Amino acid sequence: MAISIQFKRSFLLLFFFTAFCFSASAQTIKGNVSDAKTSETLIGATVHIANGSTVFNTTVKLDGSYDFKNIPAGTYILKVSFVGYKTTKEYAVDAIKGHIAILNVVMLDNSTALNEVAVIEYASKESDRSARGDEKNSNNTINVVSAQSIAISPDVLVSNVLQRVSGISIDRSSSGDAQHVIIRGMDKQYNTTLINGIKIPSPDTKNRYIPLDIFPASLVDRIEVYKTLTPDMEGDASGGVVNLVMKTAPDRLKVEGDFGTGYSQIFFDRPFASFDRSTVRSKAPGESLPPFANAPISAFPYQNLITKNANAPLNSNASLTIGNRYLNDKLGVLFSGSYQNSYQGENSFVAEQSNTVGTSPNAQTPNQETAFQSSNNREYSTQLKRLGTIASIDYKFDDNNSINLFATYLQLDQYRVRQTETSTYGGYSYQGYDATNGVDNLTETRSDLQNIYNITLKGKHKITRKFSLDWTIANSEAKHSLPDIAEFKTSYQTSPDLVNGKNEPNPNSPGSSVFVTPDIIDGPVTVGNESREWTRNTDKDISPYLNLHYNTTIFGRKALFSAGGMYRHKTRTNFNDTYSLPNTYIPGTDNAELYTTIPAAVFTFANNPGNAEGSAQADAGVYNFTENIYAGYGMLDYSASDKLNVIFGLRAEHTYEYYFSDLPATFAGKTATITYVDYLPSINAKYTITDNQALRASYFKSILRPAFNDFVPYPDGTIDENYLSLGNPYLQHTKIDNYDLRYEFFPGVFDEFMVGSYYKYLIDPIERVLGETPYGFGYTPENLGNAHNYGAEFVAKKFFGNVGVSVNYTYTNSEITTLKKIQIGDQDLASINQTRPLQGQAANIGNFSLLYKDQKNGIDAQVSLAYTGERISSVSEYYDLDTWEKASTYLDLSAQKKIGKHFILYVKANNLLNTPYELFLKQNNATDYSGLLKYAHQESPNYTTVEYDQFYARYSLGAKYKF
Fold first, then answer.
1. How does pLDDT run across 932-954, given as a tens digit for each residue?
2. Which of 199, 220, 247 is the C-terminal boundary of a domain?
3. Is residue 429 assigned to a domain?
4. What letter does residue 296 receive in the DSSP assignment?
5. Phi then psi dihedrals of residue 196, to 5 deg
6. pLDDT > 50? residue 13
7. Neighbour count for residue 730 (Cβ, 10 Å)
8. Could you tell me the CA-to-CA distances from 87 to 75, 78, 921 in Å, in that order?
9. Contact (Cβ atoms closer than 8 angstroms) between residue 259 and residue 334
10. What tens digit of pLDDT does each residue of 507-541 get?
11. What is the CATH number of the domain that holds 235?
């Protein structure tokens, strides 16, 4: 009986499966359409079939296929047409009942009869097809993001786009935007940014790396991420190189742009705070006074400290690109501009760490962070105004000689109000939390102004059939100014209600009790000290490049010899001037002035005349830095066989650095001269398995030069919101050996599959250590020993008709062993070795995107997940007290619809999960997590949360146009 039932079930399953297969194959004509010469699929080609008056049309899908399903049986005439190709002959195809007819069609390029429009449509460098071709044909291991992919992504900034590239994770600014990239677990300082292949200076107040949130994505033609170096590339990029290839003159008239608006969800629940920036003084008072002269209190107007709350305005953005060719196509001209005005916010909680840690019973037991003495609750309101412009002019004298003049100007102005409530804890319980002894309220207004300017002149010349050269002259400048960072402080003391409060048993400490109060009594609000700071820096580069090339053969095989060099003269100036305005006291008392309003607050230098001089006269933040880089290389690009190509050579770089600061002469690090020479060999090998498959292997040696302020022992409080940064005049540059292996397969225009591995050995890596300094708790860059970094990458992208899946995953493991401190009872500090990952390296990062592309109806949609595993944010000088960034997952989506021939409507949404930025310590948190003296934002008894920031979702919509 059981056998009979099982037989019936199997029979029914077989019946339904057969019926399903039969219905799925009923009268179907399908196939692929491709180029007769290159075998590339011709996406968007129109396939037409007709049987008498019965006519059907379809287009070739993203995987190169077409299909007609469930059509009436009969004989059909099929033909294919595509812009720029000859319409095919007519084919007779029989649609037989219950069968699938397959017809693959190849098409001939009609290039001799193409009009100008057709050439551009097929050869556009902005397309995904072009990006896959660049990855396939590159001499380096590279990932390319096309302008087409950027346009349909949820992102409007280059920095946000890059987080979706394999092997890349990002860090975020206080506005919530991605700001810097970490490539293959190598911290942001190990990566470089180029514009059209030329390195540009950084407006960062301390570091060399470029804040990528200054680049609007609409100016970019494509983004190239090089993960290996050849000898003709500068050697200070161990993680990778981000090359932003900007738009250039098209082959025909181009007019395109977009306009849109948006809003930040954070302002659904709270107002946007702003201040009158027209009253901000660009220069410090001391800059207009004689040396060591005292500034009057009147030199510090209060107007820019007065804030107002209102609903945040709508965001706005617009861009325009115009380009064409003239003089029989010899002269190409393009201009592109972008403007963005957005309002963003952040809610932040920070439990400030101090240099006091709980003692340990022995050298094998880690210290514990003591109960935090204070915490900050902050609300940020930031207006960001981005302006980006590029202009490109190229002239082709003849087939052998051409020049190009390119200029760009990028500007990011941020106007920010930061409102902070600092709580100093008092050891009694209120509403189940550790309560306060006092509260400080601080209002800070800040104008943060950055810009980058670059002008580049390039030339290419073919001198003879075998000999050619190219040259470049680049002049660049980056500026960053923070005029009058103003902070106003008020304070009041708090105390428990001693009458109605009572002691209760402490569940975290048996036998002891905690005083529990039903309410807190606030004391009078008084005026605290006011601070004002002016800081700015300018970074200028002048860089000529020359490359010589000679084509020949070796053993009958193609060989290209290249040699050349570059010189960069960098000058950097830094200025800092800080003033502390002392508050006043009620006459005849030791009590500070009672607070009423900011305009009514009185400050005086009478009792502290030294404060009126400012800090600039003896401030290490005032310095001049000169750097000269001399580099030369020799390289051979050799086709060893029909399948094997090898590029190898040697690069030499000489570094000369000199700085002079305003520190007193008795301070170590007031001035220094630093020189060194590095020899950087490299080899890149590519073995072509088939036309669409290749295996790559490489080795290259690279370096990391310390940042400018990394040398100067200057306590800079403008970089980090919570701790100062201090330079180290004894810092050494880092040397890195890099190995790479990758298999790649490009089965279709949009499809790709890559898998690879890498290994890096670092000598003297530079990391920021959080600990005690002569100026308080802060960060100091240090060489902590040698390190290993290795991992693997996987990339896959596949379309199934109109639906596609894109996924990448990177595993990275790094190891460095360093000495850490342990405080043992009342004894001196002991030291113990600890092995840990490198700062900034996440073991696991990945991206998953679900894609939809309907070319016939002009619809593109994308849902994207980006995951970054936990990683060390800052290294502690104490054993097992490193600060970690918690793992995060971001969900974004975008969709666009083509309207007619010229317009596209789009919608984008970012951070739909409201993913917070969290920092934590891996230590026991049972006491602070629960009980009557717990702390806010503590999520687990197994770790201590020290920072919790929220940015909330952002939404935008708009329209694009193209004529």
1. 889 889 999 999 999 999 999 99
2. 247
3. no
4. P
5. 50, 40
6. no
7. 12
8. 20, 11, 67
9. no
10. 888 889 999 999 999 999 999 999 999 999 999 99
11. 2.170.130.10
Same domain, 103 and 199: no
Determine contact, residues 635/562, Cβ cutoff 8 Å. Answer: yes
DSSP type of residue 149: H
Average pLDDT (89-110) is: 87
pLDDT tens-digit map of 214-229: 999 999 999 999 999 9
Dist. CA 138–CA 468, nearest whole Å: 20
Range of the domain at 37: 2-113
The SS3 assignment for 217 reads helix
Q: Are residues 144 and 23 in the same domain?
A: no
Residues 288, 625: Cα–Cα separation, whole Å? 24
Q: Which candidate, 731, 738, 724, places its Cα nearest to that of 707?
A: 731
- Taking alpha carbons only, the member of 47, 115, 185 closest to residue 836 is 185
Alpha carbons 912 and 960: distance in angstroms, whole number: 24
Task: Say which range, 49-58, 87-96, 108-117, 399-408, has the weakest mean pLDDT.
Answer: 108-117
92 domain-assigned: yes
Neighbours of 22 (CB within 10 A): 11
Helices in 93-196 by DSSP H: which ranges?
116-123, 128-137, 147-152, 158-162
Q: What is the model's pTM?
A: 0.86
Mean pLDDT of the 728-757 span: 92
Residues 151 and 40 in one domain: no
Contact 60, 53 (CB under 8 A): no
| Rounded CA separation 277/381 (Å) | 14
* Residue that has been written with the tokens 């009590």 in this structure: 591
Residue 180 lies in a domain: yes
Residue-level pLDDT at 716: 75
From 113, 129, 153, the end of a domain falls on 113
| Neighbouring residues of 329: CB distance < 8 A, sequence distance ≥ 6 | 251, 396
Using the predicted structure, report yes or no on whether residue 634 has a pLDDT greater than 50. yes
% helix, strand, coil for the chain, step of 5: 10, 60, 35
Return the H-helix or E-strand segment holding 16: helix 2-24
Backbone angles phi, psi at 318, to 5 degrees: -155, 150
How does the average pLDDT of the chain come out, rounded? 89
Res 871 pLDDT > 80 = yes
pLDDT given for residue 719 in this prediction: 58
Residue 909, beta-bridge partner list: 893, 955
At 695, is the secondary structure helix, strand, or coil? strand
- 95 and 186 inside one domain: no
pLDDT above 80 for 19: no
3-state SS string for 469-486: EEEEEEEEEEEEEEEEEE
Number of domains observed in the structure of the chain: 2
183 phi/psi in degrees, rounded to 5: -110, 125
Identify whether the C-beta of residue 147 lies closer than 8 Å to the C-beta of residue 319. Answer: no
On whether both 133 and 28 belong to a single domain, the answer is no
Instruction: Report the candidate in 569, 548, 474 with the shortest Cα–Cα distance to residue 198.
Output: 474
Burial of 665 (0-12, 13-18, 19+ CB in 10 A): exposed
33 in any annotated domain: yes
User: 122 and 140 share a domain?
Assistant: yes
3-state SS, residue 188: helix
Lowest mean pLDDT, pick from 211-215, 356-360, 540-544, 736-740: 356-360
CA–CA–CA angle 723, 729, 735 (5° rounding) = 100
Residue 79 and residue 174 in one domain: no
Q: What is the mean pLDDT of residues 640-648?
A: 95
pLDDT at 26: 62
| pLDDT tens-digit readout, 770-780 | 888 877 778 89
Same domain, 234 and 161: yes
CATH number (domain holding residue 44): 2.60.40.10
Query: Which whole-number Å values give the CA distances from 83 to 61, 136, 401, 493, 657, in the listed order?
Result: 15, 25, 32, 77, 57
Which residue(s) pair with 156 in the sheet? none
Q: Per-residue b/e over 251-276, b at no fewer than 16 CB within 10 Å?
A: beebebbbebbbbbbbbeeeebbbbe
